[in-house]
Amino acid sequence: MKQLAVFNQKGGVGKTTTALNLGAGLARKGHEVLLLDLDPQAHMTSIMEHAPRDVAASIFAFYRDGKALHELEVEWPGIGRLIPAHTELIKVDSLFGKGPNILNKLGNGLTSLREMHGERISIIDCCPFLGVLSLNAVFAADCLIVPVSSDFLSLRGAQQIDHTLRVLEPVLKRRVERRYLLTRFDKRRKMSFEIQEKMRELFGDDVCETVISENVSVAEAPAVHKDVFAHAADSRGAKDYASLIEELTASGFFR
Amino acid sequence: MKQLAVFNQKGGVGKTTTALNLGAGLARKGHEVLLLDLDPQAHMTSIMEHAPRDVAASIFAFYRDGKALHELEVEWPGIGRLIPAHTELIKVDSLFGKGPNILNKLGNGLTSLREMHGERISIIDCCPFLGVLSLNAVFAADCLIVPVSSDFLSLRGAQQIDHTLRVLEPVLKRRVERRYLLTRFDKRRKMSFEIQEKMRELFGDDVCETVISENVSVAEAPAVHKDVFAHAADSRGAKDYASLIEELTASGFFR
Ligand SMILES: Nc1ncnc2c1ncn2[C@@H]1O[C@H](COP(=O)(O)OP(=O)(O)OP(=O)(O)O)[C@@H](O)[C@H]1O
Ligand SMILES: Nc1ncnc2c1ncn2[C@@H]1O[C@H](COP(=O)(O)OP(=O)(O)OP(=O)(O)O)[C@@H](O)[C@H]1O
Ligand SMILES: [Mg+2]
Ligand SMILES: [Mg+2]
Question: How confident is the model at residue A112 (pLDDT cuts 50, 70, 90)?
Answer without folding.
Answer: confident
